[in-house]
Amino acid sequence: MIVKVNGNEVVLEKAISLKELLVVQQVRTPEYVTVQLNNEFISAGSFEDTLIKDGDEIEFLYFMGGGQAL
Amino acid sequence: MIILTKEHYRRILAHALDSLPLEACGLLVGSIEEDVKIVKKVYGLTNMDQSPEHFTMDPREQFDVMKDARKSGLVVLGNFHSHPATPARPSAEDMRLAYDPEASYLILSLRDQEKPVLKSFRIREREVEEEPITILSGNDSFEEKAFS
C-alpha cells in the first residue's frame, strides 16, 4: 500500500502501526514527535494501536522547545 | 552555513523585541544547496509557555509552516528563539530538548538590547557545534511571513 509521510510517497509491504512507521522513518526519539494522521492529531499513547491504511497521509515533526532557563 | 538577509534578521529581532519580557520563537524556511541553508521565509510562532525563561512552539503552527513550505517547494531549515537575559549559546535545556539532528538552532541574545547577538548551532545528542551565519544586505527576492 502507498501512504504519504511528510508529503512523500512511501510504499509499505504490509499494514503497520504509527509506532512502527516512525521506526521505519528513523525517528530516534518517537516520544518527542507530534503526529497528524489525515490532519488529526494522534496522541503518543495511541501510536502503537493506530494502524496505517492505504492512502493515509501522515505528518510528523519534532517537539521544539527550550529556553534560557535562568 | 546558513544564509539569511537583513530583512530576515530584522524580522527575528522585531518578533523577539515585541515578545519581551517573554521568550520568542519561530521557524526558518528555505532551501539547501550543497550543504548551505538559504533562508527564504521567517515565521514568528507562538510561545505556548508564555515564559521569559522557556519556550514551546505550538505544534499546530509548526504543521502549518511545514505544509506551507512544502507548497512552495521549500523545507523547514531550523528554528530560532530569544534569550532575553542570557548570551546567545544553548542552555542545558536547549541541548536537552534539541531532538532534530538536521535542524539549525538559532539563538538571539537580547542581554544587551543595543547590541543583539544572533548565533546558529547544530545540536546532535547534546553535542553543540556553532554554525556560521551570513547575513546578506539585499532582500530582493525573499519573502517574509508570520502568524503573529
What does this structure look like?
The complex is a heterodimer of chains A (70) and B (148). With 70 residues, chain A is mainly beta. Chain A is built from one helix and six strands. The radius of gyration of chain A is 13 Å and the shape is elongated. The mean pLDDT of chain A is 92. Chain B starts with a strand and ends in a 12-residue tail after the last strand. By secondary structure, chain B is an alpha/beta fold. Chain B has one domain: Cytidine Deaminase, domain 2, CATH 3.40.140.10. Chain B has three helices and nine strands; from the N terminus they run βαβββαβαββββ. Chains A and B meet through strand 3, strand 5 and strand 6 of A and strand 4, helix 2, strand 5 and helix 3 of B. Strand 6 of chain A pairs antiparallel with strand 4 of chain B.
Keywords:
heterodimer, A: 70 residues, mainly beta, Ubiquitin-like (UB roll), five-stranded mixed β-sheet, B: 148 residues, alpha/beta, Cytidine Deaminase, domain 2, 9 strands, 22% helix, 39% strand, disordered C terminus
